[in-house]
């Protein structure tokens, strides 16, 4: 009767079962038996947090820390509760405290990564640069692109970066250029974010384009400078990732031509160009695109450049021929969309945030607050999943790791995208994904049914989204779950106006056309233009083409979503958000938990907050017949 551990363990089991009231009672019994039981305080905090009583949860975590000051889990959980309460600064501080106590604490890193997705720093945060660097170097805890804006906003408080941004105009002086490269090469987080992520910031882009041109104009005097090589290599990786979206002047084009001829002549004479020359060229054009690429002997100092710009594209070309094809794509719009993504596989990425632990359908839907009508699907042990439109693999890989014991079929129109996806899947050692080139309209010929189907950012690019949606619904088992991502009419009004303006000005979707459009937007004072400059999609060719120049686009309102669901025999199960900001805001307006599943109330909310679904409507639904 006085066995505190048994009460604590029973509380955890009851919480897993969903009986939070009984779980809390059991933790309280444990504390009566053992008043300084830190684990019981921590676990009761978890149960209270799930129940929605944040302040009581915070009190219990704090009590756990009084009993056990070095309790990393309690610091982490207190951070979660503070984040849910909206106190993001305090949440970050507590996650960092957890990491000081437990440096390999992946969950605390993941929580910091999640919180960084939605913030911009307005002041320096001691120690956070090192934490983010560790987070990025882990490679699979967070997607670098997701936290790039927050990272850059923090780096602008770094003394070296701040000082250099203030004197960009002086970079033409060779001594200033050398000093700049030496100082920036020692800001480890700056180098890392350049290597693995897009840089979604015009001020930093201006700095990088200035540095790039001045390296080109002065490369002969930079030979042998290791700091210059470190920075130039990272810059070349950045330019490759953004698909060389930066504009270049006529003077640069002329200087680049001379350097290209010089390197070619050197190679044809049996000599090798210097490392700085190779890195400089790679800042303007992928090494794989030079006819003499095979003659290069890349030094170890540029090994990553060789891997990313030569070896990986070669691997994709090989894998492309191995991907099975369902049948020839006949639909004209599907063919146009395929052509776009063959030219610009979307999106280009380096690392990806993956779930720390795979979960059953039951646990995952519970954690996402997904309301299911037919519970049978929750008990499926080995779910069959279809990813309809997997792009370059971020979606398929994430879902394959997210659901326990799942078997995934991932399809896409573009063989270039599929080859990229398969390369990354092999690189990560993931074995439960099968890739197939197919048009959604032809999937009925598969004669397969799935427990789970996910299609995000795909249906709205079809000629008739409902035709595609019907095919996918027919591929779903009765009671199966469907995750959909669709554009919001309200959130994309500025995009609609820009697209119309582009048509009037006859701007094309070629690489040069996109760069021309982009340079006009950067100089523009128009509100719509200023808004898209804040989008991460503005900072690479493939993402900007997808954002503004897509060959086909439809948009939806929430009432239209409701009508589509009714027509297809699907029931709305809830929205899914990348972070909790929008959901918290919604619940301030609509406090009842059931309101989360009321599309009429979400429609009211969106009208008052028209940018809420700027990314897309991402929601779950269930087939009820």
Number of extended strands: 7
Which residues sit in consecutive blocks of at least 5 with pLDDT less than 50? none
Query: Helix proportion of residues, in percent?
Result: 55-70%
User: Per DSSP, what share of the residues sits in E-state strands of 2 or more residues?
Assistant: 5-15%
Structural class computed from helices and strand pairing? alpha/beta
Total DSSP helices: 29
Mean pLDDT, nearest integer? Answer: 95
The profile of the biggest β sheet is:
7 strands, mixed
Distance between the termini: 50 Å
Shape: globular
Radius of gyration: 26 Å
Biggest β-sheet: strands ordered side by side in the sheet: 3-2-1-4-5-7-6
Explain this structure.
With 625 residues, this protein is an alpha/beta fold. The protein has 29 helices and seven strands. It has a seven-stranded mixed β-sheet, sandwiched between helices. Strand 4 (450-456), helix 22 (465-474) and strand 5 form a beta-alpha-beta unit. Helix 1 packs antiparallel against helix 2 (20-33), helix 12 (188-196) runs parallel beside helix 14 and helix 23 (493-505) crosses helix 25 (527-533). The longest helix has 19 residues, at 250-268. It is globular, with a radius of gyration of 26 Å. The protein starts with a helix and ends with a strand.
